[in-house]
Amino acid sequence: MSQTDAVLVLVLLSSFLPWISGSRSILREISKDNKEEVEYAVELNTTSFDAVLGNTPATYAVVEFFANWCPACRNYKPHYEKVARLFNGPNAVHPSILLMTRVDCASKLNNKLCDKFSVAHYPTLFWGPSSKFVAASWKPKQEKSEISVIDDGRTAEHLLNWINKQLGSSYSLDDEKFENEYLTSNLSDAGQIARAVYDIEEATTTAFDIILEHKMIKLETRASLIKFLQLLVAHHPSRRCRKGSAEVLVNFDDLYPSAVQSISKPDVVMGNGDGALRNFQICGKEVPRGYWMFCRGSKNDTRGFSCGLWVLLHSISGRIDDGESQFAFEAICDFIHNFFICEECRQHFYEMCSSVTSPFKKSRDLALWLWRAHNKVNEKLMKDEASLGTGDPKFPKIMWPSKQLCSSCSLSRGQKDNGSGRVDWDEDEVFKFLTEYYGETLVSLYKEKGLLGNGATDGVLEELVASTNAVVVPVGAALAIAFASCAFGALACYWRSQQKSRKRRRKLDVI
């Protein structure tokens, strides 16, 4: 080979090296992806067992007791997961019907739980109404128990057949996530909003998942997140979300120290606490995911998260006192502006916030402003969805509330040239409707289950003390905002006392 030929070969090889390297990288990624096993069944332990099964929206549950060292259990797991994917997770084919869980009896933590159910071999499967598993036990030959052993679930096909017999259903392992053609769209039924408690929990959890995934906690957004957390601690309609928000809030300074502001540029991403923050679970580990009960659309890509977030904001606006209205307005506007990742939506909402020229003095004013803002968004989306055909046919955007939901809210209704609704509203009646719909009716399901605390501030304090032993609390300018709000007075006093105790202990440590 001549010197010229050798040079040519080297040039050709060098041109192929990046492609070869890239191909190997792609193959590694494919191999990695193939090794990652998606688990749909929810793994429970002694600590989470009652909480998850007591709070799931699913009517029934299957509990598998297994041991991680058991070869038969390992072989059975793919069968169990094949059925679980139909009912569990964000892409559940048939959500809110059945929760499939598992408990590892090889863990010492779960010994007493497995003994309560008389588990004598692995795997053992139980069936029953979800709520009946709470504080329950099971014995062989036990009479009058709504919990029963699944005696024919040795394959995915057999297990699903057994479930179908219990439910009178005809689910198939080949079912795919469906366009919900038979979803009720009876918007005139005011009681449907009670189901939205679960959707608000999921929307809250999803919002914070997005914040962490996109590393959106920065020095310039830190204070607005703290403000919104303070709002959730006092007024989130879900008790477990109030508790989770409080746990995040009292540890926020450790996760994202404010002292960094003096030495860093304002646009630096404060990502060091993201991993630790994920461990707090803003609405608890047992929060249902993928159900979208009130907010479930008739098409897979409609409603869901955005609907749940709107319901959350309306519910907060209906729960605050007059003195908190401006604080709540600023917290909501800043949160959407800094943490909502739909750019066009974010900008539109920011423009509506910026158009407000005087502070809110009444909770009524905030509730009605948010209602008007929502209708402005609906009016804008009407045009877009009409021209692009992207709307949900069973849940079209309307000027809300409808006549069926609130007959006294509107004095008259007409049509503008562009097809959107023109309504003369009785705002006193609208405010009354908003308060009842997003207040009493929304949380009625929680009242029935006995999950609500006795009052906003007192309940928050009790939950905060019970949920954490931490003495590291948020300090600085962000807390000063909370202290100015009447509803946070008791909470502020608690934080202050904890901070003083912390300082005293530090002095003693130094001495």
From TrEMBL:
GO terms for cellular component: extracellular space; Golgi membrane. Gene3D superfamilies: ERV/ALR sulfhydryl oxidase domain (1.20.120.310), Glutaredoxin (3.40.30.10). It comes from the Eukaryota. Its EC number is 1.8.3.2. Its cofactor is FAD. The keyword Oxidoreductase applies. It catalyses: 2 R'C(R)SH + O2 = R'C(R)S-S(R)CR' + H2O2. The keyword NAD does not apply. Keywords: Disulfide bond, FAD, Flavoprotein, Glycoprotein, Membrane, Oxidoreductase, Redox-active center, Secreted, Signal, Transmembrane, Transmembrane helix. Residues 6-168 form the Thioredoxin domain. Residues 298-400 form the ERV/ALR sulfhydryl oxidase domain. This is Sulfhydryl oxidase. Residues 1-22 form the signal peptide. Its main location: secreted. It is found in: Secreted. The chain crosses the membrane at residues 471-495. PANTHER family: QUIESCIN Q6-RELATED SULFHYDRYL OXIDASE, SULFHYDRYL OXIDASE. GO terms for molecular function: flavin-dependent sulfhydryl oxidase activity; protein disulfide isomerase activity. One of its GO terms (biological process) is protein folding.
